Amino acid sequence: MEYIKIRFGKNLGEMHSRLQRTLDEMFRRVNPMLVLPEQVWRPQIDIYETLQEIIIVGETSGVQKEDLEVELDQNAVRISGTRRGIPHVPGMRYHLAEIAYGSFERILLLPVPINPEEVTASYTNGFLKITMRKRQQDLVHRVPIEGSPC
């Protein structure tokens, strides 16, 4: 799967994230019921690297492993899933609603190309961990030149 990388400027993702959090908090304070329907939420993600690997850790508590999906190519990773809400009980009334439920999708551009054949994923205690082997770029491949001597 190929991803199209579009950049419009620096830190747009960070600005969008801050704006979204501000709007969510504003609506949550006005009326918690405004944010209860199925919504898009963004689990927190860490990306770090070692000499040989890129590691992604996502906080996805409350999501069943069966409801998570990871897709990747050598330059990007797509993580998606659904956190299901608690069943609605007749007469139930919220006094505080801070937990986001619903679907999410994150497409993360990787800092270096990875080898898609050497990837592992695990899910423990609400954390999704994806470990990807970096593609070796410093290997020189010599190409033999065929032909008869002059």
Output the CATH topology of the largest domain.
Immunoglobulin-like
Biggest sheet: strands side by side, in what order? 1-2-7-6
So what's the oligomer here? Answer: single chain
Structural class, please? Answer: mainly beta
- The number of strands is 7
Shape: elongated
What is the alpha-carbon Rg in Å?
21 Å
CATH architecture of the largest domain: Sandwich
Number of domains: 2
The major beta sheet can be summarized as:
4 strands, antiparallel
Task: Specify the number of helices.
Answer: 1
Report the end-to-end length measured between terminal Cα atoms: 46 Å
- Under CATH at level 1, the class of the largest domain stands as Mainly Beta
Low-confidence stretches: 1-10
User: Average pLDDT value?
Assistant: 79
Percent range for β-strand residues: 25-35%
Order of helices and strands: HEEEEEEE
